[in-house]
Write a structure and sequence with these properties.
Blueprint (H helix, E strand, L loop, with lengths): L2 H19 L2 H8 L3 H14 L18 H13 L5 H10 L6 H11 L4 H12 L7 H12 L11 E11 L3 E10 L5 E6 L4 H17 L7 E4 L8 H9 L3 E4 L9 H18 L8 H17 L11 H5 L4 H11 L1
Helix pairs in contact: 1-2, 5-6
Length: 332
């Protein structure tokens, strides 16, 4: 039974209940609708003979791109798949179609052709006989799908990695334990003077799990590489105690944990490369305090492009609809 059929049956039950009870107000109170809604549904039944939801067509915006312009853009992509939005916009303007480079990129993203490799793949699909791709393209396409990291809700999959920062005078070597939620991009990080399993266990047990639990999120799976700090009895015993599934990346493939690798590049470029040129640190605690301030900005106030310019906290907090649905499934 479809969703429209379920809605129609509920509306039918409302009308039947009101007719059998002989009291419209009582029926509206029982079904939680207003009298205005009741009369609208009754009018719809008498007029159309159906109680299905009315599907309203989308309004035609005056500044929308014409279908002919979109077809022309696709034709140019087949002829020049290596061209970017700016060059495509210039060629369209020469052909009498006024479409900015931003508008071109918007349509490329909607078509799923916003990268050069996707446009080349689209060209090969168009030109290939019987839709058969070359082995080289199929191999690259399968490799791209192989490294896709999928998480359905906050805490479903958390990536963790060790990042070597360098040598701090008077302190020694500095390592960063990094964890990021693959669904919401909510990140935590801790600084240590060693990269052994004790640092990994301490960060996971005393920072990652409690930090996520404060927001109502439970870590279910932990994705790490095959380093010695993660592949040992003490670390796996700790994960088993908290009922966390340990997922390992493919050997010599950092792309398997690409989300945490990208975050470490972000924190390096936006925090460490700037702060080490403006401030001298005497202890690891001072550096950790400034890192915590950066994490607050990253999680709460920095728009994330992969989240459509939303903040990580917007998807991470347990009051969002997706997590509410997840908790509802667990309770039923």
């Amino acid at each position: 039974m479809t969703a429209n059929q379920l809605i129609a049956n509920q509306r039918k039950s409302l009308l039947l209940f009101a007719e059998r009870a002989g009291n419209i107000s009582k029926a509206c109170k029982v079904f939680g609708v207003s009298r205005t809604t009741y009369y609208q549904l009754k009018k719809q039944l008498l007029k159309t003979g159906s109680l299905d939801p009315v599907v309203r067509s989308k309004p035609l915006m005056p500044n929308r791109t014409r279908l002919s312009a979109k077809k022309q853009l696709l034709r140019l992509l087949v002829e020049h798949p290596s061209w970017g939005p700016c060059r495509l916009s210039v060629r369209l303007r020469q052909e009498g179609i006024l479409l900015s480079s931003v508008g071109v990129y918007y349509h490329l993203r909607r078509f799923g052709l916003n990268t050069r490799w996707r446009r080349l793949l689209y060209l090969e699909k168009i030109k290939a006989k019987d839709g058969i791709l070359t082995q080289r393209t199929l191999k690259k396409f399968n490799q791209a799908r192989q490294y896709q990291i999928k998480a359905e809700w906050p805490g479903d999959l958390v990536g963790q990695d060790t990042f070597y920062l360098g040598h701090l005078k008077g302190v020694g070597r500095i390592y960063q334990q990094t964890a990021i939620d693959c669904f919401s991009r909510f990140a935590l990080a801790g600084l240590y003077t060693s990269c052994d399993h004790k640092a990994a266990v301490h960060f996971t047990e005393y920072k990652l799990i409690p930090g996520y639990f404060q927001h109502g999120v439970i870590v279910e799976r932990l994705l790490t590489d095959r380093g010695t700090e993660y592949c040992n009895h003490e670390f796996n015993s700790m994960l088993s105690h908290y009922e966390i599934t340990h997922v390992l990346t493919k050997p010599k493939r950092p792309q398997s944990n690409g989300i945490v690798e990208r975050f470490q590049r972000t924190v390096l470029e936006e925090f460490y490369q700037k702060i080490f040129r403006t401030k001298f640190y005497m202890s690891i605690e001072e550096l950790q305090d400034d890192l915590n301030q950066f994490l607050i900005e990253y999680n709460f106030f920095r728009p994330h492009q992969s989240l459509k310019n939303r903040y990580p906290i917007e998807l991470f907090r347990p009051n969002n609809k997706i997590l509410q649905q997840r908790f509802k499934k667990l309770l039923t």
